[in-house]
Amino acid sequence: MPTATLSNQSLMQTNILDKEFDSLINIDEIRESLRQLDEEENRIDAFLDDILKQESILDTSLNSLKAIKPQLDTLKVKAATFTDTVSQTAHLAEVISDKVRQLDKEQTRAKLAIKYVEDVQELKFCISSLNEAMQKKEYDRAALLLQRASKIDSSILKGSLAEFTVVSHYFYLQVFAYILSSLHQSTQIIQKKH
Fold this sequence. Notes:
Elements: H1 8-13, H2 27-135, H3 139-150, H4 154-158, H5 160-165, H6 170-193
Helix pairs in contact: 2-3
Organism: Rhizopus microsporus var. microsporus
Pfam families: COG4_N (PF20663)
Protein name: Conserved oligomeric Golgi complex subunit 4 N-terminal domain-containing protein
C-alpha cells in the first residue's frame, strides 16, 4: 500500500510560505517567490492526490473487513460455544475420574472382603477336616491340614467372622490357633539357626 509522504526538499520549501511577501520589492524576487510557490502548490497537490488514492484503498480494505464481519461474529459465537463445551467436558471428565477412583477403592475393599471370607471358609474346612482326621486317627492327613491352615493369615483366627462361622468347632479353633502360633515360632527359630 503506497504511503503519501512529502519529500525532504518539499518540506524545506514549505519554509517559503513563512516568507514575508510584503517586503519583496524587486520584480525578480517576486517572480522567484511566485515560481517557488507554484512548485510548492504542485507538490502539495500531488501529496493530496496520493492521500486520496490511499483513501480509496483504505475504503476498499474497510469494505472487505465489513464484508467478513458477520463471518467473524459467527466464528466468535462458535468459539465461545466450543470453549463452553470443552469446559463442560473437562468438568465431566473430572467427575467421571473421581467416580472411577471411588469404584477402584470399592473394588479393592470387595476383593479384600472376598479374600477374607474365602480364608474363613478355608479355615472352617481345615478345622472340620482336622476334627474328622483326628477322630479317624489319620495323622498324616491331619498334619497336611495343619500345614494348609498355617498358610492362612493369623488375623483370620482372631476375627469375629471366623469365631461366628466356626462356632461348633470353637475349641478346635482355639487349639488350632495355639498350634499355628507354635508352628510359626518354631519356624522362626529354625530360620534364625540357619
